[in-house]
Amino acid sequence: MKITVAELLFRYMERLGIDTVFGIPGAHILPVYDHLFGSTIRTVLVKHEQGAAFMAGGYARASGRIGACITTAGPGATNLVTGIANAYADSLPVLVITGETATRFFGKGGLQESSGEGGSIDQVALFAGITRYHKLIERTDYLPTVLQQAAKHLRSGMPGPVVLSIPFNIQKEEVDDAILEQVAFGSTCCEYGVSAQAIEKSVALIRAAQRPLIVAGHGCLRAGAQELLAHLSQRFNIPVTSSLKAKGVYDERAPLALGSLGVTSSGYAMRYLEQESDLVLVLGAGFNERTSYAWDGSLLAGKRRIQVDNSSQQLEKVFRADLVVQADLGVYLAALNEALAKEDLPAKAPVDVAAFIADFQAEAAAAGTTIFNHQFDHVRAFYRWLEGRFPDGLAMFDDNIVFAQNFYRVSARDHFFPNTGISSLGHAVPAAIGAGCTLRKPMFAVLGDGGFQMCAMEIMTAVNYGIPLTVVLFNNSTMGLIRKNQHYLYSGRFIDCDFLNPDYALLAQSFGITHRRLESEADLAQLETVDFHQGINLIEIMLDQDAYPNYSARR
Predict the structure, then answer these.
(1) How many Å apart are CA 411 and CA 128, to the nearest integer?
(2) How many whole angstroms separate alpha carbon 455 and alpha carbon 405?
(3) Measured in Å, how far apart are the chain's first and last C-alpha atoms?
(4) How far apart (Å, rounded) are the C-alpha atoms in residues 196 and 72?
(5) Bridge partner residues of 69 (DSSP)
(6) Considering 302, 327, 355, which residue would you say is the last residue of a domain?
(7) DSSP 370-437
(8) 366: exposed, middle or buried (C-beta count within 10 Å: 0-12, 13-18, 19+)?
(9) Contacts of residue 201, Cβ cutoff 8 Å, sequence gap at least 6
């Protein structure tokens, strides 16, 4: 049967399992939008295309399914760049459909043209470095190949954003609907098997170790290996620390949890790694700048090392290992647990992690080297309140990171999504809205006032569609990290970091949402009447502009 390309794209999205599309319509993409009218796919009108890309990424990150956004040509597409780059850095499957001027206008200066002809914007070049696949579709004869390539990259073991740009006239051309039968919509993930030799070497290294330590990364989360990881840790008394991106992959309230490792953490995981461990199992962790304390060689010095990752690009990228295994973390951990059980390997000597942490914190307090002083006590109390208030868990998109990394112990029932990727300010609010379209948990977006002003209007997207959301806004009228660095590294020469804030109570009132302001621990009582499950809320936490976390990013 003959159908238009616009209808084919709608059916293609359906077959990919897409149920929500974020975007803004424009003249050059209206044929596709017209087929979304009254369809099974929900459309969400955003306030800015960057928000659409962040929402699609948040949706993909929370659900594990394909996120999608759709925009018009020219600025509609170029406004997506930062959000697409973020999805690329986080390997998120995001399908992006953009319009384009009709092909007969190419090279003639068509309105919003981005064909690359005649001096116009070259959209293919613009997205080349931040997508797994991008195609300007100028003809329909190769459409089956294009759709197959797009599906393959979206469903691969290492997915990423895919951009399909379709000229206005091509959207209206007719093609045979049998094209979709030429597309493989199933998963293209490859499971890397684990050799018996690799498992035998792993068992031998663990047997010989006195105090092994697991550094768990995002690869464990991607593989869904949380239970296997917990079994390995608990059965053999092996403490676990995680990368920031994997915070919560191991229940941080468990007795063997050392929290997340990294430059913005309190430091006890680093101390244990350096001074206590003799074998380090790096499981799906890239050991990037943040996790490795800018690749501090002392962290792994003198220790045996096992590194397991499904990506060959990560293996021995920044350190040499005694055993390197390329494998899916779920497959590896299942095989390792089985082998250790058959060997009847005894558990390691118990480690009192709580006492170790308490001793470290007491030493830091006595030396005045704690990462936070008393000026942050109300922030600490807020996160402890969250732990008690949501025993069934919550979901948190966190642009601020440093507070939650140190104060919030992510449980097995929580979903914690730190702003990794390219660490773009303004990410948390739209990403949380996207996640709120698929995840049924109390949803939090945590960010500073600088980042908030980059995305504040997307709160109205949540209002328009009744998407429950709580925005936690740290208000210190400054770009906190910049001011901290200028204080410590540039002799207090503050430039372009301070600003005036609006009255956020009045802003919340204009949005029609709930507002609360916290200035002390006593103010937490105000939160008892807030609807965190169905409401839309703005929680403003006041900070002293001259209060700085005590850590160094080493630059």
Answers:
(1) 38
(2) 23
(3) 61
(4) 53
(5) 22, 96
(6) 355
(7) -S--GGGHHHHHHHHHHHHH-TT--EEEESS-HHHHHH----TT-EEEE--TT--TT-HHHHHHHHHT
(8) exposed
(9) 323
pTM greater than 0.70: yes
Closest to 272 in 3D by CA, of 150, 158, 356, 171: 356
Are both 218 and 130 inside the same structural domain?
A: no
What confidence score (pLDDT) does residue 555 get? 54
Co-location of 132 and 214 in the same domain: no
Structure tokens at 358: 């308490």
Which two three-digit tokens encode residue 486? Answer: 């200028």
Long-range CB contacts (within 8 A, 24+) of 310-317 = 310/157, 310/158, 310/192, 310/219, 310/222, 310/223, 310/284, 311/158, 311/219, 314/286, 317/286, 317/287
What is the secondary structure of 238-292 as a DSSP string? --EEE-GGGTTSS-TTSTTEEEE-STTS-SHHHHHHHHT-SEEEEES----TTTT
In angstroms and rounded to an integer, the radius of gyration of the C-alpha atoms of the chain is: 25
Q: What does the DSSP assignment read for 318-372?
A: SS--SEEEES-HHHHHHHHHHHHHHHTPPPPPP--HHHHHHHHHHHHHHHT--S-
Domain that holds residue 78: 2-182
Residues 147 and 262 in one domain: no
Contact 239, 377 (CB under 8 A): no
Euclidean distance between CA atoms 225 and 245, whole angstroms: 15
- Residue 505's CB is within 10 A of a number of other CB atoms, namely 13
What pLDDT is stored for residue 189 in this prediction? 56
Q: Long-range contacts of range 316-324, CB-CB < 8 Å, 24 or more positions apart?
A: 317/286, 317/287, 318/287, 318/292, 319/287, 321/282, 322/205, 323/198, 323/201, 323/202, 323/205
Closest CA to 8 of 119, 238, 166, 160: 166
* In contact, 40 and 66? CB cutoff 8 Å: no
Determine the residue type at 348.
K
Distance, in Å, from the CA atom of 550 to the CA atom of 365, rounded to the nearest integer, reads 12
Of 199, 214, 201, 249, nearest to 348 by C-alpha is 214
CATH code of the domain covering residue 398: 3.40.50.970
Bridge partners for 213 per DSSP: 280
What are the mean pLDDT values of the chain's consecutive 10-residue runs (555 residues total)? 92 95 96 92 97 98 96 94 95 96 85 83 91 94 93 92 95 90 74 83 94 94 94 96 93 94 85 91 84 75 90 80 91 95 89 91 87 92 96 95 92 93 92 97 97 96 98 94 88 92 97 97 96 97 91 64
| DSSP three-state, residue 503 | coil
Q: 3-state DSSP call for residue 229?
A: helix
CA distances to 96, 161, 383 from 427, rounded to whole Å, are 18, 17, 21
Beta-carbon contacts of 314 under 8 Å, excluding residues fewer than 6 positions away, are 286, 307
H/E segment holding residue 540: strand 536-542
- The C-alpha atoms of residue 156 and residue 190 are separated, in whole angstroms, by 8
In this structure, the answer to whether residues 221 and 120 fall within a common structural domain is no
Rounded Cα–Cα distance for residues 265 and 549 (Å): 10
Single-letter amino acid, residue 105: F
Judge whether 462 lies within some domain.
yes
Q: Residue 224: what are its φ and ψ, rounded to 5°?
A: 65, 35
- Reference 169, options 104, 77, 74, 96; nearest CA is 104
